Amino acid sequence: MTSQDTERLTNIFCTLFNKPDLKLRDDLTARDIPTWDSLNHVNLMMYVEEEFGVRFTTGEVSSMQNVGDLKRLIDAKTTATQAA
Amino acid sequence: MQLDTVQANSHPRLSEFIDHVNGRPLLRGSAMNMELLHRKYGDSYLAFAEEMLTTADSLGFDSKGAYERYIMEYIRDLIRFQKNGVYSNGTFEEIRARIYDNDALMGETYLPGLLIAYGFTSLLHEKYKFFEQAFLPHIRSDMTGVEVGCGDGFFLWMLLRTLPNLRVHGIDISPSAIEFTRKLLTTRGFEEGKNFTLNLGNIGERTSFADGSQQWCILTEVIEHVGDRFFTMGEIARFMAPGGLLFLATVKDSNHMDHIWNPESPDEVAELIESYGFTVEDQLIYVVKEEFKGLKDDAIGLAFVARKGD
């Protein structure tokens, strides 16, 4: 993921979880952010879909466990979109 | 949620399900729900949850996948409701074509997801507990009754599980629901024709039940789905016997893909029931937020036990 994309993703996290100083580590999980609940997880995925112009399947939304998973997923989706 | 070693050994499917749920943000709410239900109901909850999962195995569906799809749909609908303040899922006929007549959606997500959700979401599980405590003890094996909109078949199963000599009847507008219920009850060892009968039926129209013929009726998660709730209640009042017992469950401020009516208050539902000649004898008003502090879900589960007057 480019540093620009990481910044875009960081902005989504900071806004959604109301944590302006959040540092986005790959091993960051929902356990580290109390407000990262089921509802906000779907909100997160919807914001990412809109920001990056991608679509996630239910399986992808469900299996995502940390920020590293999400970054890899975005990379795979955006690469596929560019290749098409 | 965690199980100790003894619990994990005696509940292998639940233990596996918990391993799956833990660590997944999408299912974080489910983990909280399971913890809460375990705290409230102890080992009997664990046994119930294990039975739900082994039943799903017997039915041949992937409980984890179906449940995830169901939860995903629920949360998407919840977000849409929070944004707009209304359900806006279309008319009854649009919903019927899009959902009830859609075998893939009903068979892969809606029905299996709803069945599993009775074990893992407190909003639905509490209605089942209320049914068990406030309705079931009044039903005798020689009574005639019907579940209208039997859906996944959960309540017919719970009736037969407690009263194996009872003969139950279920109707639903969806062919997929009839098939799913048939498979569930058969899988659990009940025989069609002997223990249960099922047929397609629309509670938005006059049914074939004779006046005053039914001594009990279950109407769960249906009244918020129908096009004309007044007609539906009138029809139920017509075919229920004097002194018959109605179990009606619904929800306030909880969107789902096929919800039409959002009651203003619990009282509005009670008044609807009583305006058709019933007396509400017991009720459940389950405010999800009171159990989970800080949760952004305004859903209120409602259930009523009401007796038909003479």
Describe the model:
The complex is a heterodimer of chains A (84) and B (310). In chain A, 62% of the residues lie in helices and 0% in strands. With 84 residues, chain A is mainly α. Chain A is globular. In chain A, 23% of the residues are buried. Chain B has 12 helices and 7 strands. With 310 residues, chain B is α/β, with parallel strands linked by helices. The interface between A and B is medium-sized, with 20 and 20 residues.
Oligomeric nature of the chains: heterodimer
Cα-atom radius of gyration of chain B: 19 Å
Total of domains of chain A? 1
| E-strand count of chain A | 0
**How many strands appear in the DSSP assignment of chain B?**
7
Number of distinct helices of chain B: 12
- Sketch the major β-sheet of chain B: 7 strands, mixed
Residue runs with pLDDT of under 50 for 5 or more positions of chain A: none
- Beta-strand portion of chain A reads under 5%
Instruction: Give the strand order, joined by hyphens, for the main sheet of chain B.
Output: 3-2-1-4-5-7-6
Apparent shape of chain B: globular
Radius of gyration of chain A, CA atoms, in whole angstroms: 12 Å
Average predicted local confidence, pLDDT of chain B: 95
Spans of chain B with pLDDT under 50 lasting ≥5 residues?
Answer: none
Helical proportion of chain B, percent range: 40-55%
Largest interface: A-B, 20 and 20 residues
